[in-house]
Amino acid sequence: RSVYDGEEHGRFMEKLEARIRNHDREIEKMCNFHYQGFVDSITELLKVRGEAQKLKNQVTDTNRKLQNEGKELIIAMEELKQCRLQQRNISATVDKLTLCLPVLEMYSKLREQMKSKRHYPALKTLEHLEHTYLPQVSHYRFCKIMVDNIPKLREEIKEVSMSDLKDFLESIRKHSDKIGETAMKQAQQQRNLDNIVSQHPRISGGKKSKKEVCASSDLEVKTTSPMSEQDSGILDVEDEDEDEEVPGAQDLVDFSPVYRCLHIYSVLGARETFENYYRKQRRKQARLVLQPPSNMHETLDGYRKYFNQIVGFFVVEDHILHTTQGLVNRAYIDELWEMALSKTIAALRTHSSYCSDPSLVLDLKNLIVLFADTLQGYGFPVNQLFDMLLEIQDQYSETLLKKWSGVFRNILDSDNYSPIPVTNEEIYKKIVGQFPFQDAELEKQPFPKKFPFSEFVPKVYNQIKEFIYACLKFSEDLHLSSTEVDDMIRKSTNLLLTRTLSNCLQNVIKRKNVGLTELVQIIINTTHLEKSCKFLEEFITNITNVLPETVHTTKLYGTTTFKDARHAAEEEIYTNLNQKIDQFLQLADYDWMAMEPGSKASDYLVDLIGFLRSTFAVFTHLPGDVDVHSTMSGKVAQTACMSACKHLSTSLMQLLLEAEVRQLTLGALQQFNLDVEECERKMQHHPI
């Protein structure tokens, strides 16, 4: 800085040049001093270069030889490298395949199960596949495809299992009558067994009750799990002979489709959907089952098929209730049963009202009892059915009354209204066995002899007993007390006596062209039937074991019925006699202007008196015991004679007082007086 600041730049350059020359001289001196060594070094370097060239040639040659020799090794090493790489890849592949193969196997198994319709196992396989196997290999593309297909597979399983359920529901709908028929046969066998056991208590030790039989049957047959390979709804069962043991009702049904579908929907989290669907479909089927055919009342088979379908429906529901957890519950079953009970009772009331055959009504009652017993065995309340049977009992009584009305008409129309002739002891005992009649005097009489009554007496008496038996048949198995049975029989018998038989007797008495002899015989017959009423009382007491002295026991009104019929017959006799008298009086032809009377009574009056004498002879010669004879001749005959005389006298007085008779002669009055005296004389000498 001081050089540049001052004016010594030239001087400085001079000094610098001098310095450089000094250093050059020193370098030159030093080089001169070391030049020989440099030459020697160059010489040595030249020697080294030769040697180096030789070494280079040797190295080159050695390298060439080494390269030639290493090519095969390099190839082998490359091959080894590739082998090691392949080995490593294979090992990795094996490891990955070890993870993938179970997935593929499970998927293949799933497809096989789907193909063979093993839907519940398929669903389990799908669960394992989704949660256990697929997460381990989720990064593979095929696994992603599987994962995407899982919801579709679940939906497919749901649809297929629902289709199986629909097939099952359709099958049990079609086979409900077969299931019900089998259940009712089983109930009938159990009832027969109970009857045998009640008669022979000692053999009851080894028998099972119906509930026990059903329970054991359920345990043995219904162990089918949802893993079952079969999906059929109904098992084929051949018709068994009556002597062979009837299979349990549940033995006819394979419930595995329901179980599988229930488990599948439970696993899929849609159990509530399944329950609602099942109950909805079964309610629809219940309404169809409870709809009776329009011609059900025509034959017993129509009722039987109707009952079989109802029983079959509730047998299935009862089994579902006890073998599944919550698919159906007691409230649902009770609701269905209440609906079924009301509709069944309404249908029976409607259709049974069309029945006019008492045999069909009785068979229907027995079928209803079996229907009620069958369902009662499965725990359903059936009291309303038995209450309805009491209503049908009234209808049954009406049909019996109509039938017996025809029976009584046939008996009364075919009767000859003459005493029954007896030619030997055998016939006598036969009639006495048919009708309670005892007469010591008649027994002492030799054969041939006659009963005082005609044939319709024992026939009517036996038909009354048959009617009582028919009423008793209806009361069987209705769980009624002896008093209730007795009251029912007595009320029905009273209707038979006071309405049916009374009307038939009245019709016979009131019909045209009935003779006095027939009317007299009807009086005799009704008298004997009246006496037999106490034996009918005893007959009812014997079959019901209810004493007539019991407080609420209804009395038979047969005595009143036969008394009324007898009185009607008596009145008819009096009326007929008066009509006959009027007919004779119409023949009277008095000449009220005659000057002289005749020498004898008028011809019409003679004929009239002759008719009355022959008529009263019928009363005086009545066959039979003393009581009847005295009653007929003493009461009926005397009353008839008095009625006839009174009517005759009144009619004769009317002849005199007729408006057409304006004047009379003494001769006419004498003739009229002669006729009146003839009447007095003849009537006074008549044996009555």
UniProtKB/TrEMBL annotation:
Please indicate which superkingdom the organism of origin belongs to. Eukaryota
In what residue span(s) does the Exocyst complex component EXOC6/Sec15 N-terminal domain sit?
15-184
Q: Can you list the GO cellular component terms from the UniProt entry?
A: exocyst; plasma membrane
InterPro entries per UniProt: EXOC6/Sec15, EXOC6/Sec15_C, EXOC6/Sec15_C_dom1, EXOC6_Sec15_N, EXOC6PINT-1/Sec15/Tip20_C_dom2
- Where is coiled-coil annotated? 13-83
UniProt domain Exocyst complex subunit EXOC6/Sec15 C-terminal: residue ranges: 384-684
Annotated GO biological process: Golgi to plasma membrane transport; intracellular protein transport; vesicle tethering involved in exocytosis
Specify where the region named Disordered lies, as residue ranges: 198-233
Answer yes or no on keyword DNA damage: no
Where is this chain compositionally biased, Polar residues type?
A: 222-231
Recite the UniProt keywords alphabetically: Coiled coil, Exocytosis, Transport
Family per record: Belongs to the SEC15 family.
Q: What is this protein called?
A: EXC6B protein
Native source organism of the sequence: Chauna torquata
